Amino acid sequence: MFLARACLHAVVLAIITASTTDENKCDLVGEEDHESTKEKALLKRLEPLANMSFQTQGKSESDTYTYTLRVCREVPGSAPYAGLVQEDTANNKKVVVGRINEAHLASGSKWIMLIYKGGDPYNNRCDKEKRKAIIMINCNRKTLATGFTMVTEEREKINECFYIFELESSLACPPEDSHLSVGSILLIIFVSLVAVYITGGFLYQRLIVGAKGMEQFPHFAFWQDLGNLVADGCDFVCRTKPRNEPAAYRGVGDDQLGDESEERDDHLLPM
Q: What is the pTM of this model?
């Protein structure tokens, strides 16, 4: 029984893995193996969003629609290669706004623009051309992906109509500059060496020499003498007032001596 369950789980996992592996991905506009290297780099950059699905609602005249987006993956339960689908909430009719097999990518300093072309054609508008979706992925360092919204639909033109959507993601943000200056590197090295010197010297003085108290500090006598020298030098250079000269020695004159009282020691003599 345990072996049968294990085999069943293995088969289910294999089916899930196969379905995930066989799932269609973005096909950039251009001839095979001749796509833009910049677009390929952007496509790889957006790969963390591949397993996520986003939904939002939008209105067009009197109708309300639900839009479902997947980044370079197919929307489940829709037509093949459908990357962005519009569903009428009244009758559940689905319309493909853009397909992942006609994808185009561009980027700026803080945004990535994903374009899906090849959607279902308009019925009576825009010269019955195929729909096109423009997804503006804006920089937001606080989240991997959020804020999917439908901005507008331009369908009053004769041709070149389009939908515009917005999405916020940290993937659209430029890499943070973490390069250190030469001064910072030297400062880090200096602080590290000082820390090693103090720690190693302290352990040596305490464990090997057996020093106690302030004597545990490495080369304590040297640093003490150096501190005194520095203090003397600072005192010599920075002093603004002359030192207080010691009072000159004055001898005691005979005239200052008073008359000594005559001491009698008669009482010391024995009677």
A: 0.60
